[in-house]
């Protein structure tokens, strides 16, 4: 009775069939990146807005004012009074009536002196030159309501977190491809509702659901791909990340061509309907079928894979075995009960949290720093492509731990330098910031690999799921940290990012090097592997190193 890996090797570990399925599912990385980073363009600050004085609409209609003329009568007095436009969240505390002059309406108030005019906080009656350009103008997310933009992105990440647990469990129980297709359908439908709702609460509810289903598409496509290829999954995981980066580079082009936030929302949501056609071309994971004791279906799929790969699968195969062992009802205590497991778990949880917070913070920061948003966003995405190449070049030559640490430290130092560079040297500021984005991208991609290699088979799925959930927690916090601290000082978030990244870089030096190490099967294996390494993960020379490269 052959094992699944033996049958897969005979059918072709990465033949024409797997390459086709791999390419099709990788497109999910593009649409998921659209959802992940869309807030930068959906929530772009309006070019111009002001608070309308009560009665101004009626007076404007009677006098035949343009919006610019009405703005002059509303905003100009504030600028003359304060010497700037810093009082944009306030308005003149007057009520215009139809008896005032169309040419000098303010002479009716304050004895003709703008300095005598009272001010009051504006609660509503906002006017925008481009009323549907972003969700800020659509739902009046300005001044005292500005924090609601942060909330919208936090809600999306909360959806990611929820989807990781609920749909991850559903994919294990009901099948990979079923949950993938339902998730694609959910993303598309929820995206349409988000685009057309006029109520902000409804917007948040369906943005949460879109995030939940979006995480379902991303997780299940990754799992399907890794389960139908051979044991070497490093290139597979990195290439999927490359498609995510391609989506980051495409998104500004969509936003440039589509002038309204509703149009952008539809453009990034509707492609998910196309993935429903995968029902006829992407099979269920044969590994999953075997774990559910559906060996006949799994064998049928393997014969189909072999046929498309130009291979021949022996007709004598009547059953396939798969060896797997799981801890019944694993808990967090299983991950921290022994010294090495406890160290690995706590450091990996922090690494996931810091990487996600910094990465998402740097992405969203592009929307508030000025400059050419579309070009800057494209460049910041393009710089992620060399990250994958650097990882491929380094992890099998010098290991994982050192590139993991260096990428975090470089990102931290780059963020710190960027914060204090003068604005009159934009090319240097952009270059250093780009280096920081490259570093954190590498760190974010390496943590995927290291997390898998440091946990035993008996706890691997649970351990990776728990640690990576801190990624979504970092995403929930990122918008509040970025936008609220940037309101105090634009560069203050970079200082926080710098501290988080450098601390992460130092901590990962405490992890053991996993280059060439066989995947541990039990907790005892993890402890034994760790005993081969001294302080800061260096291998002890007096230990037997036959299991290492």
From TrEMBL:
Q: Which GO terms describe its biological process?
A: dopamine transport; histamine transport; monoatomic ion transport; norepinephrine transport; serotonin transport
Provide a GO CC annotation, any one.
Answer: nuclear outer membrane
Q: Which domain of life is it from?
A: Eukaryota
Question: Sorted alphabetically, which InterPro entries does this protein's record hold?
Answer: MFS_dom, MFS_sugar_transport-like, MFS_trans_sf, Orgcat_transp/SVOP, Sugar_transporter_CS
Q: Which UniProt keywords apply?
A: Cell membrane, Glycoprotein, Ion transport, Membrane, Mitochondrion, Nucleus, Transmembrane, Transmembrane helix, Transport
Sorted alphabetically, which Gene3D superfamilies does this protein's record hold? MFS general substrate transporter like domains
Query: What is the catalytic activity of this protein?
Result: guanidine(out) = guanidine(in); agmatine(out) = agmatine(in); serotonin(out) = serotonin(in); tyramine(in) = tyramine(out)
Q: Where does the record place it?
A: Apical cell membrane; Basolateral cell membrane; Mitochondrion membrane; Nucleus outer membrane
Q: How does it sit in the membrane?
A: Multi-pass membrane protein
Annotated membrane-spanning segments are 20-42, 154-171, 177-206, 235-258, 264-282, 347-368, 374-395, 402-421, 427-450, 462-486, 492-511
Major location (coarse): membrane
Q: Where is the Major facilitator superfamily (MFS) profile domain?
A: 96-516
| An example molecular function term from Gene Ontology annotations | neurotransmitter transmembrane transporter activity
Pfam (any one): Sugar_tr
Q: Which family does it belong to?
A: Belongs to the major facilitator (TC 2.A.1) superfamily. Organic cation transporter (TC 2.A.1.19) family.
Q: What is this protein called?
A: Solute carrier family 22 member 3
């Amino acid at each position: 009775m052959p094992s699944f890996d033996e049958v897969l090797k005979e059918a072709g570990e990465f033949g024409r069939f797997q390459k086709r399925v791999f390419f099709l599912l990788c497109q999910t990385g593009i649409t998921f990146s659209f959802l992940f980073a869309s807030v930068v363009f959906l929530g772009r600050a309006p070019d111009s807005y002001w608070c309308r004085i009560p009665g101004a609409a009626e007076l404007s209609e009677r006098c035949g004012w343009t919006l610019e003329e009405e703005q002059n009568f509303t905003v100009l007095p504030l600028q003359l009074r304060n010497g700037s436009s810093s009082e944009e969240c306030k308005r003149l505390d007057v009520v215009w009536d139809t008896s005032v002059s169309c040419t000098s309406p303010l002479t009716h108030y304050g004895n003709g002196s703008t300095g005598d005019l009272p001010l009051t906080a504006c609660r509503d009656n906002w006017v925008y030159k481009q009323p549907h350009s972003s969700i800020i103008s659509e739902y009046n997310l300005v001044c005292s309501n500005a924090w609601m933009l942060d909330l919208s992105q936090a809600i999306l990440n909360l959806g990611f977190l929820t989807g990781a647990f609920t749909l991850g469990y559903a994919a294990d129980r009901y099948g990979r491809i079923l949950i993938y297709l339902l998730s694609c359908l959910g993303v598309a439908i929820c995206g349409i509702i988000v685009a057309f709702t006029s109520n902000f609460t409804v917007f948040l509810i369906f943005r949460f659901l879109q995030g939940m289903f979006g995480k379902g598409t991303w997780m299940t496509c990754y799992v399907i791909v890794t389960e139908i290829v051979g044991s070497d999954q490093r290139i597979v995981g990195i290439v999927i990340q490359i498609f995510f980066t391609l989506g980051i580079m495409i998104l500004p082009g969509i936003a440039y061509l589509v002038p309204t936030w509703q149009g952008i929302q539809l453009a990034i949501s509707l492609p998910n309907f196309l993935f429903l056609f995968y029902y006829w071309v992407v099979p269920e994971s044969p590994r999953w079928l075997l774990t559910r004791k559906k060996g006949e279906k799994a064998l049928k799929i393997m014969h189909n894979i072999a046929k498309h790969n130009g291979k021949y699968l022996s007709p004598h195969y009547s059953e396939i075995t798969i060896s797997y062992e799981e801890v019944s009802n694993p808990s967090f205590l299983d991950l921290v009960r022994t010294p090495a497991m406890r160290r690995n778990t706590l450091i990996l949880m922090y690494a996931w949290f810091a990487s996600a917070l910094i990465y998402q913070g740097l992405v969203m920061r592009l929307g508030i720093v000025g400059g050419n948003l579309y070009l800057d966003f494209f460049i910041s995405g393009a710089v992620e492509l060399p990250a994958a190449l650097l990882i491929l070049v380094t992890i099998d030559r010098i290991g994982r731990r050192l590139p993991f640490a260096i990428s975090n430290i470089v990102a931290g130092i780059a963020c710190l330098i960027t914060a204090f560079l003068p604005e009159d040297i934009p090319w240097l500021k952009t270059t250093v910031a780009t280096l920081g984005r490259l570093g954190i991208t590498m760190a974010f991609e390496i943590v995927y690999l290291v997390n898998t290699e440091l946990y035993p088979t008996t706890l691997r799925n649970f351990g990776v799921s728990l640690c990576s959930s801190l990624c979504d927690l970092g995403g929930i916090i990122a918008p509040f940290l970025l936008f609220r601290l940037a309101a105090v000082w634009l560069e203050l978030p970079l200082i926080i990012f710098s501290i988080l990244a450098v601390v992460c870089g130092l901590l990962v030096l405490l992890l053991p090097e996993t280059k060439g190490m066989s995947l541990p099967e039990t907790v005892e294996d993890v402890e034994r592997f760790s005993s081969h390494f001294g302080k800061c993960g260096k291998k002890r020379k007096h230990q037997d190193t036959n299991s290492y490269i």
